[in-house]
Amino acid sequence: MFVGEKLHDHNALRLAAHERRYTFIKSEVAIPSDLISKLKDFQIAIPSWALGTGGTRFGRFSGGGEPRNLEEKIADVGLLHALNQSSGAISLHIPWDSTTNPAAVKALAAQHGLAFDAVNSNTFQDQANQALSYKYGSLQHVDAAVRKQAVQHNIEVIQQGIELGSKSLTVWLSDGSCFPGQLNFRKAYERTVDSLKEIYAALPGDWKLFLEYKAYEPNFYSTTVGDWGQSYSMVNKLGEKAFTLVDLGHHLPNANIEQIVALLLMEGKLGGFHFNDSKYGDDDLTAGSIKPYQLFLIFNELVDGMDAKGMNHAKDLGWMIDASHNVKDPLEDLLQSVEAIQMAYAQALLVDRSALETARNENDVVACQEILQTAFRTDVRALVAQARLELGGALDPLALFRELGIRNQLIQKRGAKTQATGL
Ligand code: RM4
Ligand code: MN
Ligand code: MN
């Protein structure tokens, strides 16, 4: 859509100010020579289910112009990517995004410069045409026929993913229990692992399986894959293509997520991320909007841990957003999230790691804190903007989105009352 020629004018107007800021940071801060190229390589996948307005059980307030089908979702992500050149992938949720014409969908995505990141299965809802219910769980269910149906669904998701060129499956289970006594924890665990083994057996050789954990909701007493330990022990039983996926909103309050990330990476079992932010639970708010320091500390561990293993920052883990926007324009929110993630990554790349190691070895706690906070307090926006500029994106994607009146155009094209699939 309509970004091309306007982007040039937008950047021309802002170039002098940007160059002033970029020159300033280069004169003030020791910037690793490969920082800009690392930022340029770093692409963040957009979830297909976050392109419409999210709701809560109390209601949903659409902003209009929401994508009505998969093609329009791809167009929306293409738009984001045209603005920031950093959202070059889309993560699909099946059956919400099922298609009967994968070749056409793949070609459309390619026109927008988009790849398909992890495909997500859905055994937390019952579909209209579904034989058996997931009310009491899916892969953990006491009835083998329900488990079989859920396994089969995951295998179908893999097959759809293969046709689109995806390379990973994310399994998030709502399985658990709402009341003490309802579930035999041990048996639920064992049944889940057995079901996962069947899904794992259907994975192509170059695919990964991500097992996402979540502390609670929709089950409120126990969740069968409730924390990183449970996911980690399960993926270890599956094999080398299985990994744990960390969704930042899926922990109990005050969990030290950066430590979890460091240890999963050390064990070679961190698969990827669902970025978002939260104040209380699985709030799915804009990345970096509530706890930006935590986001930075997570990236600090990621950079440290990936470098220790010689991993490729951009390619060796799955970088995805998982968000829901109740009051913001979804596309504006996603632009903000991508930028926040890039900033945390840039700040982590600025950490003076040898000075930090020295300070740690000398038990100089004050120096350790100073080193991290110096990086965190650096205004890296000009670095992120420079990477975007070199890629052909907008100096200020959010401003350009507004200058172009994109939401109004979408409303005119799609209507004010459209509703995208999702929660
Ligand atoms: C869950 C979880 C999953 C997502 C669903 C829609 O809370 O975060 O990743 O697929 O929501
Ligand atoms: Mn998630
Ligand atoms: Mn979630």
End-to-end Cα distance, whole Å, is 27 Å
SS-based class: alpha/beta
Our Rg estimate from Cα atoms comes to 22 Å
Question: What are the bound molecules?
Answer: beta-L-rhamnopyranose, manganese (II) ion
Count of distinct strands? 12
Q: Please report the number of helical segments.
A: 15
Strand arrangement in the largest pleated sheet:
1-4-5-6-8-10-11-12
Kindly report the average pLDDT value. 97
Helix content: 40-55%
Classify the beta-strand content into a percent band: 5-15%
Q: Which regions contain 5 or more consecutive residues with pLDDT less than 50?
A: none
Largest sheet: 8 strands, parallel
- The backbone outline, from C-alpha atoms, is globular
- Secondary-structure element sequence? HHEEEHEHEHEEHEEHEHEHEHHHHHH
Task: Provide tags for this entry.
15 helices, 12 strands, eight-stranded parallel sheet, alpha/beta, about 50% helix, binds beta-L-rhamnopyranose, binds manganese (II) ion, two-stranded antiparallel sheet, about 425 residues
Question: Could you please describe the fold and organization of this structure?
Answer:
Strands 1-4-5-6-8-10-11-12 form an 8-stranded parallel beta sheet. A two-stranded antiparallel ribbon has the order 2-3. Strands 7-9 form a two-stranded antiparallel ribbon. The model has no long low-confidence stretch (mean pLDDT 97). With 423 residues, the protein is of the alpha/beta class. The chain is 48% helix and 11% strand. The longest helix is centred in the N-terminal third of the chain and has 25 residues. Strand 2 and strand 3 form a beta hairpin. The site of beta-L-rhamnopyranose has 11 residues, from loops.
